[in-house]
Predict the 3D structure of the following.
Amino acid sequence: MFEIRIICDPADTDRITTALNGIFATGAVRRLPSRYTDMERLYVTADHRSLPQAQTRPQTWPTPEEAYATAPCITSEIGWTAYHAVGRPTGALLGREFWLRKAAVLDRIALGDAAQDLFSDACEAATDAARHLLDTDQAEGITDPRGYVRQEYAAWHKQEHRAELVAAGRCPNCQWPERDCNCAEHPDA
């Protein structure tokens, strides 16, 4: 995991963060004004994405309960996806995070509707969104697209949580403030 700092024009921030999301597995983007100009500073926690490994991974998927245990409520996720889709009717310039969160929220809706059988199209919409994520990730050989979404959402959400802890000055392992934590005891901090 590493951090990227970018100084750019505020009008370019969405385009830059979308491009970074396409190349790396990124965490939350922190935006701060530049100290001496009208530019904006972006701080992004990122990690290398290993796309070709999707073919060799064992296909044991997390359960929905495991994948979405700490996920925000469905209403909040619908609001987030709607906000980011506004003005982009073709899906242009929407990064991996958007497609992942959209597929995850549709999966969660379909899981709730499967028991009640209220909407017959919910499962189909969730599967279509999952296939779009597979295309975005260039993952091949996946037999369960919705299982893949659960796996990737759980990994992404864990990384988001770690980035939030680091940004707040806390150890991502024990969650203690950095000044109180002995990070030598935490090899992957």
